Every structure is written in structure tokens, then in C-alpha cells.
Amino acid sequence: MNKTELIQKVKDIEGLSQDEKAYLINLVNTKKKYGLVWEDKPEEVEEQLRDNLPVLKEVKEKAILYSPPSGEPVEADAPNHILIEGDNLHALTTLTFTHEGKIDVIYIDPPYNTGSNDFRYNDNYVDKEDNFRHSKWLSFMYKRLKSAKNILKRNGVIFISINEEEFSQLKLLCDEIFGISNYLTSFTIKVRHENRILKGDKDFHEVTEYLLMYRKSIDFRTVKRIKDNTSLDLYTYRVVELEENPEKIILDGKEVCIFKPGQYEIKRTEPSEESLKCISIRGSIKEGNSSGRFFMKHLAKRIGKEFGVLYRVPDMGDDESPFRYFKLPDNSKRVNGDYFQGVPINRSNIKEVPFPNFFDFVDEFNNVGYEGNVEFRNGKKPIRFLHKIFEIAGFSDGVILDFFAGSGSTLHAILELNAEDGGNRQCILVTNNENNIAEEICYERNKRVIQGYTNSKGAKEEGLNHNNLRYYKTEFVSRNTSIKNHYCPSKIIQL
Ligand SMILES: C[S@@+](CC[C@H](N)C(=O)[O-])C[C@H]1O[C@@H](n2cnc3c(N)ncnc32)[C@H](O)[C@@H]1O
């Protein structure tokens, strides 16, 4: 219902005084007109935060510290990672004191709220029948994302994994928190094969998930991927003209030769500078370049009337070939024509192009169980998927935060990436200790990655030991207590 209709409804309500109607109409006029509305459900942790001071306390015996081989100078600059065990609203409040505006990248993979024991609110699982399930999830996420925004750098960026259960709600929520102008995209991630259906009782088999991307402000610069245009792989066609006196017509002032089927041959060759590339004239190509426009203007109307006819057009395009060939489809099943072009003369070798908003990680999701040698059936994300996020974020240095860390894949991915490229990225993980995941899965996994372990296939994985990992627990102290002996994260994470 739009605003005018709503005001009319108010006017039509019987039994209300003029004053009451005026009050309601004013409400309609002044209240938010577009966006999300939800019932706030306060959490116990918020009440504790109101009455106490949130702090982090180090579990010293869990610290894993880099020790250089004897004789070598102590290297102070091994990356300092931290794992915080506890509620993430608590941890984020603490980090707001020490890291406001200092985090480069945030990646989170929150509970998807599927109704099957994946989301706890005030210590109770939220099930599908709960009338407030979306409100509870939105209240929970709203508070955490507001804090997350505060600790992001001005040129920082946040990525959030989600599935269709809360996708629409999350998009509107993030539009509200980060601003619609800071929405960058929603990637679709293929995570399952369409034929590997585990539960036949569902109406549809979900093979994709989403990854939302928001920047903190326009200071974040979108990263492009590099496309190498030097490859000749697609230049594999040669046109052989068999007719010496083909029919000729004039199009756009050019003498165009027409080769009917049987009057020419198209041969496949090895990739070479002399060969041609075949381009299907579809989508944006129809209007996007001179060949597309020429075809649409003069030849597209012949599709379906003539089949397999080849047109040779002189003086076209930016390649060395004196002609450009256009071909009509061979049969009525095809709807698009093709053109053949040579290698461009002035092709710049390296071109920057945007990332696609779709990625297929089915194989990685199928094998994720083996990664880090820990079992975690609650949304474990593959290392390669995380590396793609780091690439899209342009994350080459600085601090990344994952405050729904679960099995700790984000730190594992950072440890590997740093080892690969000599980087110094630092990672802060936060996870609660549901079913001992903080201690027995997240910590254990990354401890093994740092110290080395034997994987499930019996192979020895060498430790990535040029790292420090410290373990903290969230705690509350009375507002009157001195926090001198408690952790101040800024001492540990050198920014
Ligand atoms: C979907 S899992 C994340 C999995 C992770 N991406 C991985 O690769 O292992 C979400 C995790 O967030 C944790 N979690 C849920 N609510 C939390 C809260 N309020 N504070 C801290 N952690 C929480 C859950 O215990 C769960 O392990």
C-alpha cells in the first residue's frame, strides 16, 4: 500500500476523533517510508554490556609464538593473529575501543537461520515455526554490523556469506547500515552440484549461495582482474575462397562479396598470428563495436532466409586482415551470426577487466571436509573461496576480521596466502565456544597449520611457523575495576 492509500485508510477509520486521525496521518508522513521493520529483541549480552566493562583476557598457555632457529636474530615482525573465544557482540564492543577505523577487511559467515538448529538467540535455538525468527535474526545482525562498520577503515570492505533464507533481509539491512551507495555487489557462489541431491523432501535443490560486498565509503577502490590479451589461443580459423567471381553488392559504400555455401571453406588451424578468431554476434556485441553494428544494420535481416552465406567486407576493424568476414547461421536452430577477425594491431597486452559476480566452487566445497584436518559440518568455507575474497578485496596487507569464525578457515587461508607471497597480513578471529569449537576445532586447526601436522591422507604438512597466535576469552569486569591487568588488543596487534 502506498502512502496516499494509507492516509485514505486512516481517514476512513470509523470511531476515531479528528485529533487521533491527524496524529496517525502525521505518523504516516514522518515515519520511514521504505526499508525494513523488525521487532527488537534485546539479548542478555547487551544487558551485561550495559552494566559491566567488556574486556578480553589472555589464555597464556595457548599462545603459539614464533621462535627463530637458534643463532638468528629474534624477528619481531611475524604476523600477530588473535583468536577471541566468546560472544561476538562482546568482542566487537571491546575491539571498538582499540580498533575503531583500523580494520581493512571483514569477512563473516553468520548462521543462515535455516530453522534447523543453526541459529541461537539468547541461548535458544530459533526454529522455523518461531514467528519472530526473522526479527530475532535481524536484531542480532543489526547490532553486530553496526559495530563492524565502526571498526572498518574508511577504505575498508566487508563480505558476508548468506543463503536465500535471509538474503533479502540482509541486503536491506546492509543498505541501511552501510548506505545503499556503498553496496558493491552480490556474488552468486555455486556450492553444490545440481545432481547431488541429499534431501528429496525440499521443493528446490539449492545449488548456490550469495556473498554480499559493501564498502565503508568511496575511499575503497574496486579491484579489477588482469586479463592477458597476448594469447593467440582463439585465433584458429582460416577462410578459403573457392569462387573467383562471387556476387557483389554495395553496403555502406563498401563493395561486399557474397560467398554461398560451397563457394568457400572455413578451416581450423593451430593458433597463429595469421589466423582469425570467430566471434558470435550476440548480446552487447550487437551494438558494441563496428562489426556488430554493421551486421545488425545490413545482414541480420537475412537470418532465416539465407543459410550459411559468407559476406566479405573490406576496410573494417583494427586488424591486419584486409577483410572482415560475416557468416549467417547454417540452419534455423541457430539465431546468431558470426564474424571472423584477425589479431588486433594495437592490442594492449594486459587489460584490466571487472570480476564476474558468479564463481563456481563446487569442487572446493565437496572437498572442504579435508581442509585443516578438522570436521565441521556447520558452514566450513574452502580456502580457495577465501583466497578469491582476498583477491577481490585487494587485500595485500593489513588486518582482516572474521567474527563468525567457526572452524577458523579465514585464518588458515591467511596463513597459506602469507606463506605463498611473503605477506604480513594479520587475522582476528572471534567465535563462541558452542560444542567446544573455539578450543577444539578453530584453535586446534590453526595450531596444527602453524606447527605442522599429518593430514588425513597420511602426508606430512610442513608448519607455517612464521606466525604468532594468541588466545583470548571475553570477560566482564565491574565498571569500578581497574582493567590494568586485562588485555588491550592494540598492544598485540601492531597496526
Ligand atoms: C556458519 S559458521 C562459520 C563457519 C566458518 N566460516 C568456517 O569456515 O568454519 C558460524 C559460526 O559462528 C558462531 N557463532 C554464532 N553466533 C555467535 C556469536 N554470537 N558470537 C560468536 N560466534 C557465534 C557459531 O558457533 C558458528 O561456529
Write structural notes for this entry.
This protein is an alpha/beta fold and 495 residues long. Among the domains are: 44-154 and 175-181 and 374-492, Rossmann fold; 237-344, no CATH class. The chain is 28% helix and 25% strand. It is built from 13 helices and 24 strands. The protein has helices spanning 3-12, 18-30, 44-51, 88-99, 133-151, 167-178, 285-288, 290-299, 362-367, 383-393, 409-421, 437-451, 489-492, and strands at 52-58, 80-85, 103-108, 120-121, 124-125, 152-162, 183-190, 208-215, 225-228, 237-241, 247-251, 254-259, 264-268, 277-280, 310-314, 323-327, 338-341, 350-353, 358-360, 399-402, 426-431, 453-454, 460-461, 468-478. The strands form six sheets. It has a ten-stranded mixed sheet with strand order 1-24-2-21-20-3-6-8-7-19, sandwiched between helices. Strands 11-12-15-16-17-14 form a six-stranded antiparallel sheet, with helices on one face. The protein has a two-stranded antiparallel ribbon with strand order 4-5. The protein is globular, with a radius of gyration of 30 Å. It starts with a helix and ends with a helix. S-adenosylmethionine (SAM) is lined by residues 87-88, 109, 111, 376, 378-381, 404, 406-407, 409, 430-432, 434, 437. The site of S-adenosylmethionine has 18 residues, from strand 21.
Provide tags for this entry.
495 residues; alpha/beta; Rossmann fold; ten-stranded mixed beta sheet; six-stranded antiparallel beta sheet; 24 strands; globular; disordered C terminus; binds S-adenosylmethionine
